[in-house]
Amino acid sequence: MPEEFVQVLVGESMKAEARVWRGTLRGLLDAELPVALDRITASTLLIWGDQDAFVTDDQKVLLDGIPDARQVVYVGGGHGPHLAEPDRVVPDIVDFLTLVASKNA
């Protein structure tokens, strides 16, 4: 990921007050996502880097819990493969959207 992009991302994140980040993290930790996952009706693409230090076991929960979920795993990828390796991720998103569009046509 280009250093200048990281700096912009960090700079924008710093604009939010600490209470916003605390609330966000509290909400993520308190969320009972598996309870609601089966109510997701949209086709879902899970994009995951296998070196992600933040989201690990959650991927299996999401994949098993969302009725029409597919997963693409980026070997060597971290938490934000869409940011770090857009050239790898964009074709997978386009393929997924093409598949969904053809199913719904």
Automatic annotation (TrEMBL):
Q: Which InterPro entries match?
A: AB_hydrolase_fold (IPR029058)
Under the heading Gene3D superfamilies, the entry gives: alpha/beta hydrolase (3.40.50.1820)
The protein's name? Uncharacterized protein
Q: Which organism is it from?
A: Kribbella antiqua
Organism lineage: Bacteria, Bacillati, Actinomycetota, Actinomycetes, Propionibacteriales
